Amino acid sequence: MTQFRIAPSILSADFSRLGEEVRNVVAAGADWIHFDVMDNHYVPNLTIGPLVCEALRPHVQVPIDVHLMVRPVDRIVPDFAKAGANRISFHPEGSDHIDRTLSLIHDHGCKSGLVFNPATSLSYLDHVMDKVDLVLIMSVNPGFGGQSFIPEALNKLREARARIDAYKEKTGREILLEVDGGVKIDNIAEIAAAGADTFVAGSAIFGKPDYKAVIDQMRSELAKVAH
After folding, report:
1. Any note on cofactor binding (predicted)?
2. What is the mean pLDDT of each run of 10 residues along the chain (227 residues)?
3. Is-catalytic flag, 180?
4. Domain range enclosing 89
5. CATH of the domain at 152
């Protein structure tokens, strides 16, 4: 049985009470906290940096999943590792040397992930599967929360799942398949059926008054999907 993970994105949380928001969403059943880092350079928005990650770390006993939408990435990786990140993912377009950046993340004690925008080819995975712990498929164009799911992402998830399964068969190594953008109660089962095992949801969770009710409904939708 696939173990599904729900990773609420704090991009949609109330920033004036971030510590409380994170504690509440973990108490409601979140598996990870997804931490969106934007630099107003690689993407047209500016969010939060390592100091916020460091401040949140004592509040949260689950993994912090840092998604770097920045260019260049190498300079900031060690800062997030030090701030308490467990996983650090980046976009291939944000690094001049993808293999080196993946190694850098591992050298700092974190799991590494590669993120694919809607129009970015999965061929970047061809020669680095041995260094990737997580593949993150963007189902919106990165930069802003609250966008609608791009249906073509389902085909990309199927393709990524086939690659990951073939690689696992060959090596026995587990790589997670995460999806980010427009994930909601009413489409999460379809997204899981396409191969995702880890789901980032922002406004679908933080936009509702009862976080536990939303996460519970997501889990009951996921329970319908046999992997």
Report:
1. Binds 1 divalent metal cation per subunit.
2. 93 96 98 98 95 96 97 97 98 97 98 97 97 98 90 98 98 98 97 98 96 98 86
3. yes
4. 5-222
5. 3.20.20.70
